[in-house]
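Problem: given the chain below (181 residues), write out its structure.
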Amino acid sequence: MTRRIILFLALLGGACADLGGAKPARKITTEADTADQIAFKSRTIITDRGVMRAEVLSDTALFFNESTRVHLRRLNGVFYNSTGAKDAVMTSRWGIYDTRLGVLEAHGDVEVISVDGRRLRSPEVRFDQRTNQITSDSAFVLTEPDREVRGIGFVSDPDMNNIRVLKAAKGKAGTFTIPGT
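Solution.
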């Protein structure tokens, strides 16, 4: 009986050791594997002194560092002004929200559309809750009904009423009147 068990274990060990040249599966670690918490269809409210400044929706939210850093997938953010009126809507493929700094970074086909129809497109845009500004150091295209501006880098309020272009590459505009002429 003991001889049979030893023979069986020897055959079993030999069968397990011979994989026929196949390599064992490689373990793939994803960002979700290291998250402290995962939420689906998440909603985050960003406030300033009790006033809602932004509402951020995402398909998936991955929380890290005791929920101080949130990675968002398929981001849709709505910005509000100091009176609570809607300013603009921002969409992107993914983003990171740092709750300690109050900074939301949007990446991947970012588009910001103001309530009056201005459209800004860039690979990345950063919203700073403390200054209530959107910024980027990447290439961008700002389209309005009567003009288009292309450049590299900008600083603006979320509804793009006061935009400062850091480096304009080119632009085109409709007719305009020069004051004092």
